[in-house]
Amino acid sequence: MERKLFTALQGEGADQLNNCLSQQGFRRSQNVLYRPSCTDCAACLSARIDVSNFRPSKSQKRAYRRNSYLTRHATSPWATDEQFDLFRRYLDARHADGGMADMDVFEFAAMIEETPIRSRVVEYADPDTDELIAVSLTDVLDDGLSMVYSFYDPLFQQHSLGTYMILDHIEIAREAGLPYTYLGYWVPGSPKMDYKAKFSGLQAYIRGEWKQIEDPEQYAQTAHHPLSSAPIAEQVANIQLPDRHPTKG
């Protein structure tokens, strides 16, 4: 049975709280921060790429070249009809039985627009037709970019657009001097999550610290170990919160 730790993300300290908890494995969903906290399973690992240690593979280089003709436009988090149409086509083709399959235009707008922090919608379009091809809802953190949710035109499935968007965000982070690109949760051994393990420089938040992932299969084998999940009281006690009244120098 799934269990999560979560807290509201609101008020003047929202940015500070988001930065602090993101560095401790939490993720944002609209105005809520959450982290899996299941009793007997620790398979969901928050993942990020260490930009300085990332080296693209041959297939990733091909994916980048294949899609490099696309134009990138980063805008404020405002939902459009064109984005929603693309989102619906993506879900129907890729995740028709998923938890978001029934989202309507109002729920989509809430996902994009209900953000109390610094967020951007990064759009990728065909420069010849101006057709929207891919979109990423991205948060800007103190130490990196967090890819909250991405989707793309299913007609371009063979173009490795998901990989391309991650590669492009790594490049954006590098240009901005940000050390990390956050990818959300990675589940070792899950076929749908294997693509994240293919990026060099991958780190995962495990038992209170970020660890470099050298052998992904190692973590798939230990996720259900009796000691893999700390008691909930211990997890809560170990969460570090930002200083609400920092000392001014």
From TrEMBL:
InterPro entries: Acyl_CoA_acyltransferase (IPR016181), Asp_Glu_LeuTrfase (IPR017138), N-end_Aminoacyl_Trfase (IPR030700), N-end_Aminoacyl_Trfase_C (IPR007472), N-end_Aminoacyl_Trfase_N (IPR007471). Residues 82-204 form the N-end rule aminoacyl transferase C-terminal domain. GO terms for biological process: ubiquitin-dependent protein catabolic process via the N-end rule pathway. Keywords: Acyltransferase, Cytoplasm, Transferase. Residues 2-62 form the N-end aminoacyl transferase N-terminal domain. Pfam families: ATE_C, ATE_N. It catalyses: N-terminal L-glutamyl-[protein] + L-leucyl-tRNA(Leu) = N-terminal L-leucyl-L-glutamyl-[protein] + tRNA(Leu) + H(+); N-terminal L-aspartyl-[protein] + L-leucyl-tRNA(Leu) = N-terminal L-leucyl-L-aspartyl-[protein] + tRNA(Leu) + H(+). Its EC number is 2.3.2.29. PANTHER family: ARGININE-TRNA-PROTEIN TRANSFERASE 1, ARGINYL-TRNA--PROTEIN TRANSFERASE 1. Belongs to the R-transferase family. Bpt subfamily. This is Aspartate/glutamate leucyltransferase.
